[in-house]
Design a protein that fits this description.
The structure holds 2 protein chains of 2 kinds. Chain A is of the alpha+beta class. Chain A has helices at residues 7-21, 25-29, 50-57, 87-93, 102-109, 151-156, 172-175; strands at 3-4, 36-41, 44-49, 69-74, 80-82, 97-100, 114-115, 119-122, 131-136, 141-147, 162-169. In chain A, the strands form 2 sheets. Chain A has a 6-stranded mixed sheet. The radius of gyration of chain B is 51 Å and the shape is elongated. In chain B, β3 (121-124) and β4 form a beta hairpin. Chain B is 49% helix and 4% strand. Chain B has helices spanning 5-15, 49-73, 103-111, 163-196, 201-219, 252-269, 280-306, 315-337; strands spanning 30-32, 37-39, 121-124, 129-132. The longest helix of chain B has 34 residues, at 163-196. In chain B, the strands form 2 sheets. In chain B, strands 1-2 form a two-stranded antiparallel ribbon. In chain B, strands 3-4 form a two-stranded antiparallel ribbon. By secondary structure, chain B is mainly alpha-helical. Classes of the chains: A alpha+beta, B mainly alpha. At the A-B interface, β1, α1, α2, β2 and α3 of A face α6 and α7 of B. Chain A: One of its GO terms (molecular function) is RNA binding.
Chain lengths: 181, 338
């Protein structure tokens, strides 16, 4: 059954989401263009308009594969994992960003961490272990991750040092096609 | 008239077809009368059936004579009092373990309360007959009695409570309490048994059940009934076994509630009066900048003071000169030592 998230689930989910977009969560919740909400189905969190929910909720649980935009899923230990499918929303509202040099794009899209050598640009004053969106130099979002070092530390880093840990990238649309939904 | 008893007996013995109780044999048997046991150490002469049978009869006769001696000495002639056995025989089965006492039995033992034997039959007032205390056709059976079809209201009663129902409820409570206590006794006994020997699987199962029961009890045994307690690692959930009810995705009430909940979670995460919240990173950066600024100012000030300048221009300059002067003095001392 499609259902709203409980308060605990919301807290866990928003805590994870806030690592990437901070208080821009407010803009996801109150949208001027209609009522949107988060819904839980098969442990996955979907971001859907209320009209769409009404249609989706009419379907039998077994037959409903998904609706709206998948933001991620709750693991069996009740932690939340963001999926790459939510990249559109995260990239719109991201506070901190990392830009990749064209040479490092492919490596990242194959699931590797971002190294200092591949780093094009990074937002000023990015703290350590901050959720960041990773873009190419043409500002196309490629995925997201977590910084391994703060901006100040990155400057002193050797070229093979890891700048950002890989969490999700658009390459998953090909690599994990059957599990991603 | 004197009777020749010996002669009479001899005549009787010779006349009777049954063998005599007197045995023409030396009594060298070892006895353990408690076990009705006799042992003949003398070697067997001939091994033919007749002599064996005769030997067995004689020995049996000797043993029964001994037993009759005991009967002769006893006060009660109805039974032979056997002495305690001397020969230690091994048990067939292990010694049964002591049955663990229930809570009441333990308490009674402590207080020295002894159970009184009650008669099986009691006097039934209604039928004016003796009837069993419990079971079929028991005396003073409340279900059959015609006396309590009416309950008199007490002065304080307001008539809101059905007295019959209240009585039935009370009985139900009593029964359930008893059942709970019995269950507790059983579990405690199982627990005690399992702590003695943990070999049997069934006991292990019961021990697990006992553990989970006691954890569940401990979880709600704090001042807040477990509401504000920190959960320990791997602690079982408090609402285990309780079915969680979720809201529907579409009903308008639930939609409203969901929106409210989402808004409240967001507002708690990002409070409106942001002035109170401090970003640690930003604050650290600001203090670092401020410290650098003061350092730089101090440096430039000391550099200025080193250069020859007219004393007594400003307060700050004066201070700087005094400081540098001291430094020069120390330098001079060092040179002097050299």
């Amino acid at each position: 059954m499609v259902r709203p998230l409980t308060e605990e689930e919301l807290k866990i989910f928003f805590a994870k989401l806030a690592k990437y977009i901070g208080h821009a969560i407010k803009q996801l919740v109150d949208r001027p263009d209609g009522k949107y909400c988060f819904r839980l189905h098969r442990d996955r969190v979907y971001y859907v308009s209320e009209q769409q929910v009404k249609v989706a909720a009419a379907l039998p649980r077994e037959q409903l594969l998904g609706m709206g935009c998948t933001f991620g899923k709750f693991t069996k230990t009740k932690k939340f994992r963001l999926h790459v499918t939510c990249l559109d929303y995260i990239a719109q509202h991201a506070q901190y960003k990392v830009w990749l040099k064209p040479a490092a794009e492919q490596s990242f899209l194959y699931g590797n961490h971002v190294l200092k050598a591949g780093l094009g640009r990074i937002t000023e004053d990015t703290p350590q272990y901050q959720g960041v969106v990773i873009l190419n130099m043409a500002d196309v979002p490629l995925g997201f991750g977590t910084t391994a070092k703060s901006t100040a530390e990155v400057r002193k880093l050797e070229p093979q040092g890891v700048v950002a840990f890989h969490q999700a990238d658009v390459g998953e649309y090909l690599r994990d096609e059957e599990t991603l939904c | 008239m004197a009777l020749d008893v010996q002669a009479l007996l001899a005549a009787k013995a010779s006349g009777s077809s049954r063998p005599s109780i007197r045995v023409e044999k030396e009594d060298d048997l070892t006895y353990d009368l408690g076990l009705l046991y006799a042992f003949d150490p003398s070697p067997l002469g001939a091994a033919d059936a007749e002599s064996l049978l005769g030997c067995a009869r004689d020995n049996m006769q000797l043993l029964s004579n001994k037993l009759y001696e005991l009967l002769h000495a006893a006060h009660d002639k109805g039974a032979i009092p056997l002495p305690p056995p001397q020969f230690p025989l091994p048990r067939e089965k292990p010694v049964p373990e002591a049955v663990p006492l229930t809570r009441w039995e333990r308490f009674a033992k402590e207080k020295g309360i002894v159970k009184k034997k009650r008669s099986k039959m009691v006097w039934d007032e209604a039928t004016q007959l003796w009837a069993p205390r419990y079971g079929f056709g028991r005396a003073n059976n409340p279900k059959e009695s015609t006396s309590d079809w009416l309950v008199e209201a007490k002065p304080g009663d307001d008539g809101s409570v059905d007295p019959f129902e209240a009585k039935a409820d009370e009985r139900k409570m009593r029964l359930s309490k008893q059942k709970k206590q019995e269950e507790r006794n059983r579990l405690e006994a199982a627990h005690a048994a399992s702590s003695r020997s943990s070999a049997i699987n069934l006991q292990k199962d019961e021990r697990r059940q006992y553990l989970s029961h006691s954890i569940a009890a401990a979880q709600v045994s704090t001042a807040s009934a477990g509401r504000f307690d920190k959960t320990v690692a791997n602690e079982p959930s408090k609402n285990k076994g309780k079915r969680q009810h979720y809201e529907t995705a579409t009903s308008s009430d639930d939609l409203r509630r969901d929106a409210q909940r989402t808004a409240s979670v967001v507002s708690k995460m990002f409070p409106e009066n942001k002035g109170l919240a401090i970003n640690r990173e930003v604050a650290a950066r600001e203090t670092r900048k401020a410290a650098e600024e003061t350092n730089r100012r101090a440096k430039t000030a000391s550099a200025k003071s080193k250069a020859p300048s007219k004393p007594g221009k400003t307060k700050a300059a004066k201070g700087a000169i005094v400081k540098s002067g001291k430094g020069k003095g120390m330098k001079g001392k060092g040179k002097g030592k050299k």
